[in-house]
């Protein structure tokens, strides 16, 4: 950590997912740290009791999957701590007490801790403490041994001299002073409240409703488009359903470089872009693109002719304002041709707005299942889309290693297509700002097989989503018609397996897909990659880098034009789900 000593203002540090060895590093020279990620290394030994004493602003600490020993340092109880992940270590001794009301997640499972669970931690689920056989009390249910209570001596009666006339006189004087001071404070409080109400009334009279009236007026003008045959969005992800927008926010000009956001202010996080006000969006001609699990999306065409998409998120309250702003700045630094950048956002307690560019060819889901433009998706174009999607996902894995699921919501309605049919990923990296309950309900990564078994996604849950997307593109089948959300049953991958097993591979591919002649062998190779990414056994499931390497090798036409497809068909049938057998398949 010595090279980082000069960076005393460093706020986030991630050295996770490495093979680092040795003792716990000295991070005391980084007092400004708010987020520290050290999970999945080989660090060992005890952590000094005062290791975190100077980090009073520490919010997230991830130390899981190491070999730390000894007691959990009491200095870890930072007053602003939100997330604590200490699972799969060798910590022993009692748990420190955590009295932070904002503490949202604690996981100390699979250690050697003992003693009663402190009152401040009893509100968390028992899974957070499992694997510690000597912990007791709620919520784990194991009774704690009774500790005998020593009788305390009776208090001695007060001295009679205290009730002398002189003492009573002093008490009366003190009481009179207290009453007078209390009356003065009450008068001052009432006066302050009255002045504040006057200022609010003046403000409302002079500038009231800059966003409210304009927003309601413009919302009434917004046109709702008919629902497509399948509930998928045409332009911004999500499905049909909610038809009338209702935006009640105020607007102020956004300056270059962004700003600290206050209530109702639009914050730009993309440099070098033309700025506009939220009021410009509210006054623009607009149409509803659809309403999905998160909220409604609208297309707004500004006076200058530029079209933007405004997406409302109703349930995005997993973190407070400061952490939300920090996460959005992190997303603003992501630059990749296959990622849809968030141009600006608005933070309000009850909803969030994201502003992005409008993609003229809509979503992949709309072209596959909801429109008449399906002929535009021939085999070369579908291969191009899969390559771009995988490259964008790999970039997220590279840039956001601290996230278990860097995308989290990869599906065809979140793959947008620009004028050249280049795929653009949207709605990525939203898990950190959502509540765990809502994420588990709606996010695609939480429907992976491992979530059905453990309730938690893995580093390969996004790979599973990629595999389902590949099969959807090749077969033209809508995954929701086959999906069982991790429970026993037939999903899209299972259906493909059953068809291939009967050696009917030709029946798997979308019959509407044109331009496939001469490329059947390459299509079968891509089908095999999709099945490998959909392996229900996480250990056998392909790594993203393996899948990307295989996909990059694919071509629109087979190497030997006119090659017989039957050998590839039998290879998929015998190779099955993409474990080691599928990896050894030559491409």
From TrEMBL:
Presence of the UniProt keyword ATP-binding in the record: yes
Annotated localization: Membrane
One Gene Ontology cellular component: membrane
Biological source species: Oryza barthii
Listed name of the protein: Protein kinase domain-containing protein
Biased amino acid composition, Low complexity: 560-573
Any one GO molecular-function label of the UniProt entry: protein kinase activity
Limits of the Protein kinase domain: 283-554
Assigned keywords, A-Z: ATP-binding, Leucine-rich repeat, Membrane, Nucleotide-binding, Repeat, Transmembrane, Transmembrane helix
Pfam families, alphabetized: LRR_1, LRR_8, PK_Tyr_Ser-Thr
Source domain of life: Eukaryota
InterPro entries cross-referenced by the UniProt entry: Kinase-like_dom_sf (IPR011009), Leu-rich_rpt (IPR001611), LRR_dom_sf (IPR032675), PRK1-6/SRF4-like (IPR046959), Prot_kinase_dom (IPR000719), Ser-Thr/Tyr_kinase_cat_dom (IPR001245)
Chain intervals for the UniProt region annotation (Disordered): 555-587
Membrane spanning residue stretches: 170-196
